[in-house]
Amino acid sequence: MASDQKFVDFVLEQVENAGEITAKKMFGEYGIYSDGKIFGLICDNKLFIKPTNSGREFIGDIVEAAPYPGAKPFFLIEDKIEDRGWLSELIRISVKELPVPKPKKKKKQS
Fold first, then answer.
1. What is the CB-side half-sphere exposure of residue 60 using CA atoms within 13 A?
2. Which helix (H) or strand (E) holds 4?
3. What is the CATH number for 57?
4. CA-to-CA distance for 13 and 35, rounded, in angstroms?
5. Does any domain span residue 13?
6. Which of 19, 28, 30, 48 could be cross-linked to 42 through a Cys-Cys bond (beta carbons 3.0 to 4.6 Å apart)?
7. CA separation for the pair 110, 88 (Å, rounded)
8. Total domains, the chain
9. In whole angstroms, how far apart are CA 1 and each of 28, 30, 65, 89?
10. CB atoms < 10 A from the CB of 74, how many?
11. Residues 43-62: pLDDT tens digits?
């Protein structure tokens, strides 16, 4: 089941002071970015955050799940998704720990 735009918009509205938050459609689901750095996924109207050590400490009692079959486990955020301050802080501390994306290679012209 693909995620709906209302849920994506809700998640984006919840996050504040964590950089420029955007969503990009990917295979019927969404990648969630902060200043161009991917930090999570929205799949089946559920929010998944990439696991980091600081995120694990912040959450405490974590729930991990694969966002799609064959994926590595992410942090599944359900209970506190409506807690704007908590969610924003989780994203801020997680993004700090994630690597900077590698520059994309230019396509060769033939």
1. 2
2. none
3. 3.30.1460.30
4. 15
5. yes
6. 30
7. 45
8. 1
9. 9, 12, 16, 29
10. 23
11. 999 999 999 999 999 998 99
Q: Which amino acid is at 34?
A: S
Q: Which two tokens stand for residue 24?
A: 């990009």
Q: Is 103 contained in some domain?
A: no
- 70 lies in which domain range? 5-97
- Tokens at 22, concatenated: 């955007």
Helices (H) then strands (E): counts for the chain: 3, 6
Other beta carbons less than 10 A from residue 7's beta carbon? 16
pLDDT digits (tens, 9 = 90+) for 88-99: 999 999 999 988
Tokens in use for 71? 């994926």
What would the two tokens of residue 9 be? 């918009």
Task: Give the integer Cα–Cα distance in Å for 91 and 33.
Answer: 10
Q: In this structure, how many other beta carbons lie within 10 angstroms of the beta carbon of residue 66? A: 13
Residue 56: half-sphere exposure toward Cβ, Cα within 13 Å: 7
